[in-house]
Structure formats: structure tokens, C-alpha cells
Amino acid sequence: MSNITLGLAGAVGHDPAAAIVIDGQLVAAMEEERIIRRRHAKKELPFLSANRCMQIACVKASDVTHVAIPYAPISLFSKARWHYAYRHWYAPDRSIDSVFNGNRRYRRYRKELSGLLHSLNIPEAKIELVPVQHQLAHASSAYHLTDTGEKTAIFCVDGRGEYASIFLGYGESGKIIKVKEFYNPDSLCGMYAGVADYLGYDILDGEFKIMGVAPFGDPNKYDLSSLARFDGNRFKVNTHLVSTVGLRRFRAKFRAYYFSQKLIDMLGPRRVGNLVDDPYIHYAAGIQKLYADIAVNMVQTYLGDVIRETGRLAVAGTGSANIRLNQCLAEIPGVKKLVVHPACSDAGTAIGAATYASSMEGFAISPVKNMFLGPTFSSKQCLSACRTHRDKPVYELLDDPFAKAAELIAGGELVAWFRGRMEFGPRALGNRSILGNPVQEGIADLINHAVKFREKWRPYSAAILDTVAEKMLEGANYDEYMCINMMVKAEWREQYPAIVYQQEGSTRAQIVTDDSNPDMHRLLCTYRALTGHGLLINTTLNRPGEALACTPDDAIDVFQGSDLNYMIMENVLVTKRPESEKW
Questions:
Q1: In the chain, pLDDT over 70 holds for what percent of residues?
Q2: How far is Cα 577 from Cα 337, in angstroms, rounded to an integer?
Q3: Which of 8, 250, 380, 583 is most deeply buried (CB count within 10 A of its CB)?
Q4: Beta bridge pairs of residue 535
Q5: Is 218 helix (H, G, I), strand (E, B) or coil?
Q6: Rg (CA), the chain
């Protein structure tokens, strides 16, 4: 009988997701947001995603043997609960709760899980429930992207799980060993989120904009070192300024923020204008530098010996979505291979919990080859969606969709590209993408006008052939998941301004090999043969505020609700019906 482990994440927070591991092999994973079409799917259970994963894996509810969740009870005698109580002395409700009701979140998770399993028709009495500590789930998700036969340092930087916010350890022979943890409210992500809140952005999305604008500011113009300190042993966030709770929080317009009045006294009024104005752009640069400096210091302090021994570092947790941090980690002396989990949010803990539980059952976890873990649709299904869609798009079958896409892009068109299994994680990796010509003048403005409406200072990402990346990019940590900021060699920067941060000469890119994504590799080769350029602008197939398109219907909704003119779904070319034509 097969060991079938269903990982379920996000039941008490955000980014709910499901994953299925069969005898150590990850076969399916999907985020709830893709189905309900609302980013982060806050306060939702992974019901629809679990059902879809079972369909993809051809697994019946009665076949599931284990259910793994990325939350576990924490002992009253652990340091975590007492640290939390001590650091929240000024908020007695939090402090007392951590001592006398310290597993409240886990119990809530467990209660909601029972209802979820009942809805999924999974007999709770016949499965084994495996609670996995949250940071261990993050660690497992990253470690099992690698060859687990080799010793690998592991760094997880997160908002919070049960109590831990930072995990440092290593994986060896399929097992994960903890070296050090830091506990809330001493959280690098909490510090960064507090500043994001101060700078006028929503937490979970605003951090990306701060990271993006940071190269335009001077990180040394204002001293932000009072926000947090790490002395090589003790890490402490200044909760008089950020990561605040209770009466310390700044309040305005019936809302409580994640920073205090003292932060406003120190930095000035909360931003209401343009982020690129002084002093806010410099605050963005300063918090990015402080965040990266402390993280790198921690890794070198606690994992330096492992890195010197093996040269391998795996990274996960919400905070590892910060590609500039990951660039700094890749540049640590001795790091030869940096692996960043592409679904580093809580969605990734569905994979992490499932792989960890499966490994505890004695199964060797097969390294995850790619993130194409969702549903796929045939050309026939795409044609059917076109026929039945309310907007009645024009469509035709193509003999060679690769040649057609290359021709359209070379001619200055944007092409929505929908092909193969859907990606897991927030990045478009060539299966749910909008593609464009990277040398076309004004291409970023064209994408912004057509569908994205992004700030002008934000360059787009690229999909680059591996053979081109070797010539174009500096360093050895080529990334196939768009998780690491990479430097572009000087002679290439002016040629591709739409994908380069000109202030520092960097880019965020997906390196495409024939193994990682054969169809995208074929398209890039076709485009290179036609134009001489082995790369394309690659951005997500969605509109602002939406999740990545999942189904043909979703893709048509994005297409019809934007100014895109062409979309290729499998072998089907989709265009818009002329406005003058009667329906």
C-alpha cells in the first residue's frame, strides 16, 4: 500500500494550499487563491486546492494515509513561549496567553482541520495526523528542493509560526537538524513589515515594492540601526518602534498599525505621497540594508562551518521572497549553491509539511525537479472554453504555436502564453506568462498600459536561455525560479533596459534549460533563431490584485479584461472580436 501524504497549509492565516506526496515523490501542489481568484486567500481553508490536488494525483479521499499540517503544539517548558511572554510584558493579555493558552493557534488549526477533512470525505479516524512545526515545514520545503544526499545549510526567515520567526540549521541524509531559532516578537520579517506599514503599503505585498525601490535610495542617509540589533548571539527587535502590539501601536482612522508613535517621532509622518520622495526612498533603502546585513550575519555566525564544509545553502520562509537578500546570501564567501524555495510564503509549507512527514515515515524524498505541479489543459479544453466564454473571443488552431508566438513578439506584440501544468508559487515560470520583446523601445510602458499598471521605476523580469545567461550574467548561482537578484554584465545592460535596474545593473531572471521547462526552452530557441535574442520579458498572466490564471476561462478573463491582443493557449491562438462586429 502506498504512503499518500496530503499537506494542508494556511488554515489560520494566509496563502492556503495543498500538496500530495506519494512514497516520497511530490506529485501535485496548488494554492487556494488560484481557484477562488483572490490573492493570498486570507481566512480560507485549502478545500478546493486539496480536491484539485487529489484529482491531479489520481488519489481518492479514502487513499490518503497521512495528513501533515505546518503547525504543531509547543511545550510550556520550551524557551519559545517564555520568551514571547517576557518580551510582551507591556501587553499582559499576550504575555499571559502565551503561558496559559500557548497553543491556541494550533488548537484552532486542529479544529478547522477536522471540518476540512470531513468536507473532503477523508476519514479522520483512518489517517495519521502529523503536526510539523512551522519553521521545520519551511525548512523541509527548501531542503527537499536539493539533493538531500549532500549536507546543506538551511536558513528560514519568516513572520512567525507558532513562536519561531527565524530558523537556522542544516539537512543531512534526509534529516533536518536545528542549530538555532529566534522567537517573536524578534522577527526580521516583522521589523520589515512594520516599516512597510509606515511607508503606506499593505503587509504581504508592500514589502516587495520597498525591496524594488531600495536601489534608488541611499541606505546610509538615515540611521535605522535602532530598529533591531544582532550582536552575534542575541537578536532583538526594538518593539518600542516596530513589531508592536497593544497600546504601543500607532492608531489613526480607526486602524491600528504595526509601528508606534515613537517611530513617527523618529522618522516623520507616515507616507501619503510618492515612495520615491525624500526621505521615504532612503528609508526603503535603509531598511533593506539593515534586513540583509542582520540576516547575512546570522547565517555566517551559525551556519558558517556548514557552508565552508559543503558550499550549499537552502532558504525559505516569507522573508526569502526578498531577492536582494538572496543576492547577499549568494555572495557569502563559500556559498557555491544557493537554493531558494520559489513558493516561500506559507503556501510552501504544504509541500514542506508533506515532505517532512513522509521522510519521518522512512521514505527518501525525491528532489523536486520543478514547480509545475498544478493542473494542465488540452487544446480541446481550451477550444471549448473559447466557444462557451461570455465574451466570445476569436480563435483558431495553430500548427506551430512556438513559431507564431516568436513572430508576434518580434513584431512588437505582447503574447499571453498558457501552456502545460500551472506553476506553484507566485512567479510565472513560462506556463502562465505574458511575454514581450526585451529590446523593444517602450516595452515596459506597453505592458503597464495593457495589463499591469505598475510603477514606472519597476523593471520587468526575464526568461533567459541558459546558454545566454552564461554570457550575460555574473556569478555562478543561476536561478530557474526568479528568486535571486543577479548582476548583468556591463556590456549587456544598455541592450535590455526594460529588465535591468540601471542604478545597480541587476535583474530578476528565470534561467531556462531544456530540463527545467522544455516548451519554454523551445520558444526561446525559436525566438533566438528569428531575432538573435535568447531572452524574453516574462511577467505573470494576471491583472492587478488577481491570482495567476489557472484555467482557460481564467486566462480568457485576463485577456478580455486587458488591452492584450494575442493569447496562445496550448495550440490555440486567441484574439479579440472586432468591436464593430455584431455578436
A1: 99
A2: 49
A3: 8
A4: 464
A5: coil
A6: 24
- How far is the C-alpha of 24 from the C-alpha of 368, rounded, in Å? 10
For the segment 59-80, the average pLDDT, to the nearest whole number, is: 96
Conformation bin of residue 317: beta by default, left when phi > 0, alpha when psi is -120 to 50: left
Pairing of strands 572-575, 535-540: unpaired
In a 10 Å sphere around its CB, with 0-12 CB exposed, 13-18 middle and 19+ buried, how is residue 489 labelled? exposed
Write the DSSP symbol of residue 577. Answer: P
pLDDT at 282 over 50: yes
Nearest to 129 by CA among 46, 47, 6: 6
Burial of 203 (0-12, 13-18, 19+ CB in 10 A): middle
Q: 390-394 contacts: CB < 8 A, separation 24 or more?
A: 391/556, 391/560, 391/577, 392/577, 392/583, 393/556, 393/559, 393/560, 393/574, 393/575, 393/576, 393/577, 394/574, 394/575, 394/576, 394/577
* CA-wise closest residue to 60 among 20, 33, 26: 20
At 475, the pLDDT band (50, 70, 90 cuts) reads: confident
Can you give the residue ranges of every domain in the chain? 4-143+343-360, 188-339, 379-575
pLDDT at 13: 76
Q: Residue 66: what are its φ and ψ, rounded to 5°?
A: -140, 145
Residue 517, C-alpha cell as written in the block: 521547462
Task: Give how far the C-alpha of residue 355 lies from the chain's centroid of Cα atoms, to the nearest Å.
Answer: 18
* pTM across the whole model: 0.95
CA torsion, ordered 332, 335, 339, 340, to nearest 10 deg = -10
Domain 379-575 fold is: DHBP synthase (3.90.870)
Residue 62 to residue 447: CA distance in whole angstroms: 47
- Judge whether residue 581 has pLDDT over 60: no
Give residue 582's pLDDT band: very low, low, confident or very high (50, 70, 90): low
Query: What are the φ/ψ torsions at residue 10 (nearest 5 degrees)?
Result: 90, 10
Task: Give the pLDDT mean for 436-442.
Answer: 96
Cross-strand bridge partners of residue 31: 17
Cβ-count burial 96-114 (b if 16+ within 10 Å, e if not): ebbeeebbebbeebbeebe
In which band, very low, low, confident or very high, does the pLDDT at 580 lie, cut at 50, 70 and 90?
low
pLDDT digits (tens, 9 = 90+) for 499-516: 999 889 999 999 999 999
- Is 305 in contact with 174 (CB distance < 8 Å)? no
pLDDT in the model for residue 574: 99
| In this structure, CATH architecture of domain 4-143+343-360 | 2-Layer Sandwich (3.30)
Compute the distance between CA of residue 269 and CA of residue 266 in angstroms, rounded to an integer. Answer: 9
Q: Regarding the domain delimited by 188-339, which CATH topology (the fold level of the hierarchy) does it fall under?
A: Nucleotidyltransferase; domain 5 (3.30.420)
Helices 379-388 and 552-560, axial angle in degrees (round to 10): 50
User: What is the spatial distance between Cα 31 and Cα 350, in angstroms, rounded to a whole number?
Assistant: 9
d(CA 354, CA 356): 5
* H/E stretch holding 79: helix 79-87
Per-residue pLDDT at 453: 86
